[in-house]
Automatic annotation (TrEMBL):
The chain crosses the membrane at residues 12-32, 52-72, 84-103, 109-130, 151-172, 178-198, 234-256, 262-285, 297-315, 321-342, 354-373, 379-402. The keyword Transport applies. It is a multi-pass membrane protein. This is Major facilitator superfamily (MFS) profile domain-containing protein. It holds the Pfam family MFS_1. It comes from Cohnella kolymensis.
Length: 409
C-alpha cells in the first residue's frame, strides 16, 4: 500500500463539484436520519408508553442491513447509480410523510410504524451502498482518503449536534412534525443529487438486464472479493473489531445511566465529545496515513482502543469516561475512513456495489452475537468486566493484525 498523496491533493477533493454535491446532500440526509431516529421511538412511546415497543422499533430498523445487504449491492452494480440514489431518497421522504399523516390521524395500529421503520432503513442502506459507488466514480484515486474523510466529517458533525437536535424535537407539541421536517430535508437532498454529474462506469437500467442473473452477478462479486487478499483480510479484522466498538458504545451508556446515574441529556452531551473527537480524526486522517501508511493506521486504531477500554476498566469515573469517549470517537473516525478508503482502492468501480454489500454484511455479522453475550455478562457480573474483556479482545486482534499482510503492506 502506497503512502497517501500530498496536502495539495487532499484539498483537491473539495474542488470536484460532483463530490462536493454528494457531501452536502449526505450531510442533509444525516441530519434527517438523526431526527427520525429520535422521533420514531418517541412516537411509539407516546402511543404505547412501552419500552418494549420502542426496542421493537429499533430492532425493525436494524434488520435490513443483514437481510438485504448483499442483494442491494448486486442491484446497485446493475442500475444507473444516480437514478437509484434519487429513488432511495424520494422513497424515504414519501414514507416519512405517510407515517406523519398516520400519527396525526390518531391511528393506534403499531405495525405500520414497524414496517415504516424497516423500509426507511432498507432504503437508507440502499442509498449508502450507492454513495460508496458514486464516491468511486466521482473522486480521483489519489483523493479517496480525503473524499471519505469529508463524508465522515459530515456524519460526525451531525452526531455532535445530536443534543441540540434532541432538545429542539422535545419542544414539538406533535412529535410527527419531526418526520415532516426530515422529509423536507430529504427533498433538498433530492434536488442536490439531481445536479451530480457522474462519469466513468456506465451501467444499463435494471429492466434491460438478463432475467435470473442476480446469482451470476453475486458470484462475480464474490470471486472479486475472494481473489483480493487485502480486501478479504481487512474484512475479517473489521468483523472482529466492530464487535468491540458496538458493545463498548452500548455498555458505556448502561454504565453511565445505571451506575453513575448521569441524566440522559448530560449523557448526550458527553457523547457529543466523542463526536468532536471524530471531527478531529476526519481532519487529521490524511496526515496520519502519510505518516504510518493505510494498513498500519488501521491496526494502530485497534491498539489505541484497547487502551481506551482498559482505562475505563481501571478507572471508571466520569472524567475518564469523557476522555475515553473523545479518544474513541477519534480512533473510530480514522479507522472507518481508512477501511472505506482501502475498500475503494481495492475494488473496481463496476463491482463497487457488490463488494460494498458483501463486506458490509460481514462487517456487521458478529454484532448481534456479541451484543447478546454482553447483556448476559452485565447481568452475571458487571459492566466493568466487559470493558476488561474488550481490552483483551482488541489486544489479541492487534497481535494477529501485526502478522498480517495489512501491517506489512
Amino acid at each position: 500500500m502506497q503512502p497517501y498523496a500530498s496536502e495539495k491533493q487532499v484539498s483537491a477533493a473539495w474542488k470536484l463539484q460532483p463530490l462536493m454535491l454528494l457531501v452536502v446532500g449526505s450531510f442533509l440526509l444525516h441530519i434527517g436520519t438523526k431526527i427520525y431516529e429520535i422521533v420514531l421511538p418517541l412516537m411509539m412511546y407516546d402511543m404505547t408508553h412501552s419500552s418494549v415497543a420502542m426496542a421493537s422499533m429499533r430492532t425493525a430498523e436494524l434488520l435490513p442491513n443483514l437481510v438485504f445487504g448483499v442483494l442491494i449491492g448486486v442491484i446497485v452494480d446493475r442500475v444507473n447509480t444516480k437514478r437509484w440514489v434519487l429513488w432511495m431518497v424520494s422513497s424515504q421522504a414519501v414514507i416519512l410523510l405517510l407515517l406523519a399523516a398516520l400519527f396525526k390521524s390518531g391511528n393506534a395500529a403499531l405495525w405500520p410504524y414497524y414496517l415504516g421503520g424497516f423500509l426507511l432503513m432498507t432504503f437508507g442502506y440502499g442509498y449508502f451502498n450507492a454513495q460508496i459507488s458514486l464516491t468511486k466514480q466521482t473522486a480521483h484515486p489519489d483523493e479517496l482518503t480525503s473524499a471519505n474523510a469529508k463524508f465522515s466529517f459530515a456524519e460526525t458533525l451531525v452526531s455532535v449536534l445530536g443534543p441540540v437536535l434532541s432538545a429542539c424535537i422535545l419542544l414539538f407539541s406533535d412529535k410527527s412534525d419531526g418526520l415532516v421536517i426530515t422529509a423536507l430535508l430529504l427533498g433538498f437532498s433530492f434536488v442536490i443529487f439531481t445536479k451530480v454529474a457522474v462519469q466513468g462506469v456506465q451501467k444499463p437500467s435494471l429492466n434491460v438486464q438478463a432475467k435470473g442473473s442476480y446469482w451470476r452477478d453475486f458470484r462475480e462479486g464474490w470471486v472479486v472479493f475472494r481473489s483480493t487478499p487485502i480486501l478479504r483480510t481487512v474484512t475479517l479484522f473489521v468483523l472482529f473489531l466492530n464487535c468491540t466498538t458496538v458493545v463498548f458504545q452500548t455498555t458505556i451508556i448502561y454504565y453511565a445511566k445505571d451506575v453513575l446515574e448521569i441524566s440522559s441529556y448530560l449523557l448526550a452531551v458527553y457523547f457529543s465529545v466523542s463526536g468532536v473527537g471524530g471531527l478531529l480524526g476526519s481532519l487529521l486522517v490524511g496526515q496520519i496515513r502519510n505518516r504510518f501508511g493505510l494498513g498500519k493506521t488501521i491496526g494502530l486504531t485497534a491498539l489505541v482502543n484497547a487502551f481506551v477500554y482498559l482505562g475505563v476498566y481501571l478507572l471508571p469515573t466520569t472524567p475518564v469516561i469523557v476522555a475515553a469517549l473523545f479518544v474513541f470517537g477519534f480512533t473510530i473516525s480514522v479507522f472507518t475512513i481508512c477501511v472505506y478508503t482501502l475498500r475503494h482502492e481495492q475494488t473496481p468501480a463496476e463491482h463497487m456495489g457488490r463488494i460494498g454489500g458483501i463486506t458490509g454484511t460481514f462487517f456487521r455479522i458478529g454484532m448481534p452475537i456479541t451484543m447478546y453475550a454482553s447483556g448476559w455478562m452485565m447481568l452475571w457480573w458487571s459492566p466493568t468486566v466487559i470493558f476488561a474483556a474488550l481490552a483483551v479482545w482488541n489486544g489479541a486482534v492487534f497481535l494477529f493484525y501485526v502478522r498480517s499482510l495489512l501491517w506489512r503492506g
